[in-house]
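Archive maintenance. Older records in this collection stored only the sequence; we are now back-filling the structure field for every entry so that each record is complete. The fields below show one back-filled record exactly as it appears after the update. Entries are processed alphabetically, and Cell differentiation protein rcd1 is next in the queue.

ARCHIVE ENTRY
Title: Cell differentiation protein rcd1
Organism field: Gossypium barbadense
Length field: 271
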Amino acid sequence: MISGATAPVTSNPPARVRYLIQGLASEETREQSLDVLCKNRLAYGNLAVLLWNSFGTMRVLLKCVASHPNTKIPFIRATTFLNTMNNERSYECLRITSLGVIGSLAKVQDPEVIEYLLSTQIFPSCLRCMEVGKTLSRTVSTFIIYRILLSEKGLKYCFILAERYLSVSQCLGKLVENLTEDDAENLPQLLKNIIGCYLRLSENKRTRPQLSSYFPWKFLDHKYANIIRSDPKVLADLRQLVCNLRTSKSFTIHCTDEPPTSSDSPGLSIP
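Back-filled structure field:
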């Protein structure tokens, strides 16, 4: 219960507004806090700034909208701002917050959500975020693509047009080429998502030769395998990916636990 929730915000605005914003974090006080803030939004000119800069508030509000059955699909359809190429901090924060909400929806593998994601521009928008975003937004957008590809409808959507499949494989390739070890916190998850996407794409035997043509050899560097070494599932997925791509004439690679025969060998053993 928000004490004195009906009191006007004009009484000590900064302290009062901050108190109400804190109330948005709790399910018990969120509705009351939001109601008071809305009714008094004109009484405090910097309310939007406080909401934007307060930790986790936008994420909470967006999750509320995205989780409600009557608003989650309209929300997904309204996320056209993900197409922006602007890389300023404010846009990156909005990008990360929005992608986080969409990612939480995709994570549950709800067929209805996946279907609507495919009917909107979320898929190409995520590819664009993978190109222009920072490491965290790249990680989340790659996760969304991965979760979409895990569904049969999503995989079919990717392969139904050659241009679409090529855009995905090329985007993943560019993502790997631009990998840096500066963001140690998010890099393992990003690698996991990239491997998941490639593994799913490699399941299509007909397009494996094309996939291997766009597969970045840099990704087979031992340093990346070492980063994911602590995750047996991801390491197993990487081994399987290597084995799948082995079938392509243009991709010759070791698929054993033996070390490469020499440092100049084009093959790789996954540790």
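Update note: The mean pLDDT is 77. Residues 56-160 form a domain with the Leucine-rich Repeat Variant fold (CATH 1.25.10.10).
Entry marked complete.
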